[in-house]
Design goal:
disordered N terminus; mainly alpha; 49% helix; globular; 4-stranded antiparallel sheet; Serine Threonine Protein Phosphatase 5, Tetratricopeptide repeat
Length: 478
């Protein structure tokens, strides 16, 4: 990992120099051969690395979070027969340690942590950066470290606590990793609070370091992730307090220019604009992948916000036992096993993708109220999502006009919250975590193709990690 990360830092600096709105005064030729210490010891080097970190996460990390976990959690269907994709589609014991998608997800998240840590350790030593700009840079680094930690523990039973250049990183359990993510977000807020102003520290930071400029309210992004991880950690009252700080009528985006920074989910998932030209690997399952028991036909406004009208029969990769597959070509598959083209935030190479969806804050409160044994309050929050209209939410997908009428015991409410999260948070990479946390039945060992809403509970640790790091935990059974 050591040499890989060194190369990544230099590459991030170059990417940052290309993406910074006002441009950094870095010589790309010199930068390519710069050592890591040189890249992180100057004002412009820190600026460029911070910009590059954000680009790396938006362009490389986010797609690996969304696509692989989307197949595992039945949001997405595989459209091509590459071995690594077939294994992800099969899940269960068919997904082994050598799978390239799992390796890519794991490695990209560790690189994010490593680059964030380098910025956190280096930026305070560069005295030519004014304090307000430095605080913004450190807030960005702490935020990205927290997002990487959170996504690791969403998909692996344990995760490295930081990174180690000797490839001997110690792993932490769910509680330890979530606590570290929350602490990192708290540190990000402390940095913002050290600088006057409510949006961004200053114009230099906004123009030189934040590629998306005013498209991001950094404070809202941090509080949204605090609410998410506090909920995951079972700190329900704290999660409600954090969610309350995020205005539902505002949004923050990953911004793409279609050239240096391309919306890779547009390139990866079937849509009418690019499928014939590039051959996409994934398609969105019809009904957003929801099984019949959780699918409401009357809720078509939200389904059609995300899904287009082109309906494609499944290719049969990894699903030969299902009706409608290649092995059984009669097109009688249940709706969720067909797939459609995607709309929403995936229709062009320069379309912005929300960093978080405001409705998640409402659903966080709903789930926290269930955890606090306040079912009536939980139902009120559920209904705010089910019946939302107009401009209440910055991202308004429309909704069903009918309120929730089901049972109000904890298990029933959690199932309803899972359904609402599946719709509102479609293609955000959270569904695998949601299904486990909310008690949705999962696969058991020995199933060739699990018929459940997910085909694994956790991913195995990559073979390369196990070979190099003796601290790698035992793989989960499924």
């Amino acid at each position: 990992m050591y040499s890989t990360i060194r190369i990544s830092v230099a590459a991030l600096c170059l990417a940052g120099a290309l993406l910074a709105l006002n441009g950094c005064t870095l010589d790309p030729a010199n930068l390519n051969s710069a050592t890591e210490d040189q890249a992180l010891s100057t004002r412009d080097g820190i600026f460029a690395t911070a910009v590059g970190l954000q680009r790396f996460y938006a362009v490389d990390v986010l797609p690996s979070i969304v696509t692989s976990t989307g197949v595992t959690s039945r949001e997405l269907a595989v459209r091509r027969s590459f071995v690594n994709l077939v294994e992800i589609e099969l899940g269960g014991a068919g997904l082994n340690n050598a799978n390239a998608n799992v390796l890519g997800l794991f490695t990209n998240l560790l690189r994010t942590i490593e680059i964030s840590n380098l910025i956190i350790n280096s930026a305070p030593r560069v005295t030519t950066i004014v304090d307000s700009t430095r605080n913004g840079i450190l807030a960005v680094a702490y935020l990205h470290r927290a997002m990487a930690l959170g996504n690791l523990i969403q998909n692996f039973e344990q995760a490295p606590i930081g990174t180690d250049r000797a490839e001997r990183a110690i792993y932490g359990n769910r509680t330890a990793v979530l606590n570290l993510a929350i602490q990192s977000l708290d540190s990000a807020l402390l940095r913002l609070n050290a600088t006057p102003g409510t949006l961004l520290p200053n114009s230099e930071f906004r123009n030189r370091v934040l590629p998306s400029g005013t498209a991001v309210d950094l404070r809202n992004v941090i509080n949204a992730h605090r609410a998410r991880y506090l909920l995951y950690a079972g700190r329900f009252q704290d999660a409600i307090a954090a969610a309350d700080l995020v205005p539902l009528n505002s949004r923050s985006d990953f911004v793409y220019d279609g050239s240096n920074a391309i919306n890779q989910l547009w390139a990866s998932v079937f849509n009418a604009a690019n499928a014939s030209a590039t051959g996409t690997n994934f398609g969105a399952r019809d009904s957003l992948g929801l099984p019949a028991a959780l699918y409401e036909v009357a809720d078509s406004l939200r389904y059609r916000f995300f899904l287009g009208t082109t309906l494609v029969r499944p290719a049969g990769v990894g699903e030969a036992g299902f009706p409608g597959s290649i092995a059984s070509p009669t097109p009688t598959a249940p709706p969720q096993f067909f797939h459609r083209n995607v709309l929403a935030f995936y229709t062009a190479n320069n379309v912005s993708i929300p960093i978080y969806r405001p409705a998640e804050m409402t659903l966080i409160r709903a789930e926290a109220f269930v955890g606090l044994n306040r079912p009536a309050d939980a139902v009120a929050e559920i209904n705010r999502v089910r019946t939302k209209v107009g401009v209440t939410y910055a991202i308004n997908t429309g909704a069903n006009s009918t309120p929730y009428t089901g049972a109000q015991d904890a298990a029933s409410l959690r199932t309803e919250i899972y359904k609402q999260r599946c719709i509102e948070l479609f293609m955000t990479g959270t569904r695998l975590e949601d299904a486990r946390r909310l008690g949705i039945p999962g696969p058991t060992p020995g199933q060739v193709v699990p018929p459940t809403v997910r085909n694994r509970n956790f991913y195995p640790y990559p073979e390369r990690e196990r070979t190099n790091n003796p601290n790698t935990p035992t793989d989960p059974t499924i």
